[in-house]
Design goal:
Layout lengths: L1 H59 L15 E7 L9 H18 L3 E7 L1 H9 L6 E3 L8 H16 L9 E9 L5 E9 L25 H78 L1
Helix pairs in contact: 1-5, 4-5
């Protein structure tokens, strides 16, 4: 019985330590989620505006830009996966990796060769353990991405799309990330960036909502040359911000649940320890009474 008490007390102590860690992670995520949501809210209007501008330019000009047409000279496709650097976020990374695997299977079934670009240590470790070759990888910023990192990722993807087939050029670029809906809901999403696929379509045109007329200077081709790469960088940065807010929300929720589970375990182990102590006391009393009866009868 004494051995059982020691076991339960050790488990209570270790669970209390885990509870403190879970609680600390929950508070850290809660303190950061507000800023992450504000960054998403600030970046969304600009992303929508540049999407609308790109849609208008592509619609009102007859220029055939490389970013707007399908490539037929290569069967390679680039996939950018945005995951987390750290764990303790429930199924956050697993969900987006699972969505990426479905996309890869679909592309391979279409006869395409997939080049994986991965952001986040969890995803890098996943594919490294399975000995999958990565065309590019980034880590260390999943909960606080910067425009500089987004530009670095976008430039590498743009270079891959512009490259010749013999240099590893790709015919399309996809991004897999987690969309932040609210503190409870985060959804894995797949978006094709190149060739240009407008993510947030232009609103329906009505009598009082006509698209503005554009004059391109110096020329539509040069406008598209400047605007389309910026559009890609903006979309990638917005996706990184969405993933950051989703990661923090998932971690806060997961750590809150883990803290509650730790409290339940502590209550269970405390009850079992008390039962073991009570059994030990009962056994000691029985032994004393039996010894006294034996002395009296002798």
């Amino acid at each position: 019985m004494a051995g059982q008490q020691r076991v339960y007390k050790a488990r209570i102590k270790s669970t209390q330590s885990l509870k403190k860690m879970f609680r600390a992670q929950e508070l850290i995520a809660a303190s950061r989620i507000g800023k992450a949501r504000d960054r998403v809210a600030m970046a969304t209007p600009y992303a929508r505006a540049i999407t609308r501008a790109v849609s208008a330019v592509a619609t009102h000009s007859d220029v055939s830009h490389p970013f707007l047409v399908e490539r037929t000279d290569t069967q390679r496709a680039a996939v950018l996966l945005i995951a987390s650097d750290r764990g303790m976020a429930g199924a956050y990374s697993a969900s987006v990796i699972r969505e990426t695997e479905r996309l890869v299977q679909r592309l391979e079934s279409e006869g395409k060769q997939v080049a994986l670009y991965v952001s986040g240590r969890r995803a890098v470790a996943y594919y490294t353990f399975r000995q999958r070759e990565l065309a590019g990888q980034w880590s260390g910023f999943s909960d606080s991405p910067t425009p500089e990192v987004a530009d670095e990722i976008a430039n590498e993807l743009l270079d891959a799309f512009r490259a010749a087939p013999e240099e590893g050029g790709v015919s399309e670029v996809h991004v897999v990330f987690t969309q932040f809906v609210n503190m409870v809901t985060q959804r894995p999403r797949v978006v094709r960036l190149l060739p240009l696929e407008v993510v947030e379509g232009v609103a329906p045109v009505g009598e009082s909502d006509a698209l503005p007329l554009y004059e391109f200077e110096p020329s539509p081709a040069e406008v598209l040359d400047a605007l389309l790469p910026r559009y890609v960088r903006t979309r990638i940065y917005a996706n990184l911000l969405q993933a950051s807010a989703s990661e923090l929300a998932a971690r806060q929720r997961a750590m809150h649940t883990a803290t509650e589970n730790a409290e339940d375990l502590i209550r269970t182990y405390t009850r079992l320890a008390n039962q073991a102590r009570q059994s030990e006391i009962t056994q000691e009393i029985s032994e004393i009474v039996s010894g006294a009866d034996a002395l009296a009868s002798s």
